From TrEMBL:
This is FAD-dependent thymidylate synthase. Its EC number is 2.1.1.148. It comes from the Bacteria. NCBIfam families: thyX (TIGR02170). It comes from Paenibacillus rhizosphaerae. It is an enzyme of class 2 (transferase). Signal peptide: none annotated.
Length: 236
């Protein structure tokens, strides 16, 4: 399985990867001109030591590439991990890369994430961010219908602007932004992916990005089971 569907129209697809747990081991042992040909218990102990002691550079020699299709509100939260990667203590991950579709150039039919009636959440009681429990059904129906109407209006004005000859990079101003789906490639080291997962799998992370993080975890875990388990503290 290389693709996992998320939300109503989104997905995470594993495009490519380089390396394995053995890559991490051999990157660490090159300092002593040693190499393992097959992962063994001694190698597993080394990975545990590296993760526990914060010797993270060997984990940056194993690379994963994903294609993601998600609402803009998810994409922008995700993007913070790319921007902050080089500033994250111990990361310095210069191999991180992000390439995203742009409505400056494409005019394919826009898609939007619209929560179902039972998916709307209340404001949290004791926090300025995040969300609380689900709203009642009637209120959910109301806001699903209102959002659908808002999206339809934005699309109609976007299409009208294009029909009038307005350039795509300006016509897109009519599209409701945060729920609009965007597509991107994300290439990152195992360490960087683990850092993203450690934050976005937490119970207080926004539910929508949690769902994407779960998909990333399901796709990457079989590739780097020991390294990922140790970097995440075996809490996944």
């Amino acid at each position: 399985m290389s693709t996992i569907e998320v939300l109503d129209q989104g997905y995470v697809r594993l495009v490519n990867h380089m390396g394995s747990d053995l890559t991490v081991v051999n990157a660490a042992r090159v300092s002593y001109a040693k190499q393992s040909l097959e992962l063994n218990e001694r190698d597993v102990r080394l990975i545990k030591f590296l993760a526990r002691e914060g010797h993270t550079s060997p984990f940056r020699h194993a690379i994963v590439q994903f294609e993601v299709y998600a609402p803009l509100m998810v994409a922008r939260q995700w993007w913070k991990y790319v921007v902050g990667s080089a500033h994250y203590e111990g990361t310095g991950d210069s191999l991180e890369a992000w390439n995203e579709s742009s409505r400056r150039y494409i005019t394919e039919d826009p898609a939007f994430y619209i929560p179902k009636a039972g998916e709307w959440r209340l404001q949290p009681e004791n926090s300025k961010q995040g969300s609380g429990g689900e709203v009642n059904w009637e209120l959910g129906v109301k806001h699903t219908q209102e959002l659908m109407g808002y999206v339809e209006l934005g699309i109609s004005k976007y299409e009208a602007a294009l029909a009038d000859g307005i350039c795509a990079e300006q016509a897109r101003l009519f599209l409701p932004a945060y729920g609009m789906y965007v597509r991107w490639y994300w290439t990152a080291s195992v360490q960087s992916v683990a850092h993203f997962l450690s934050q976005r799998l937490e119970h207080d992370a926004q539910k929508e990005i949690q769902e994407y993080a779960k998909a990333v975890l399901e796709l990457i875990k079989p590739l780097f089971p020991v390294s990922l388990g140790e970097l995440l503290g075996n809490e996944e």
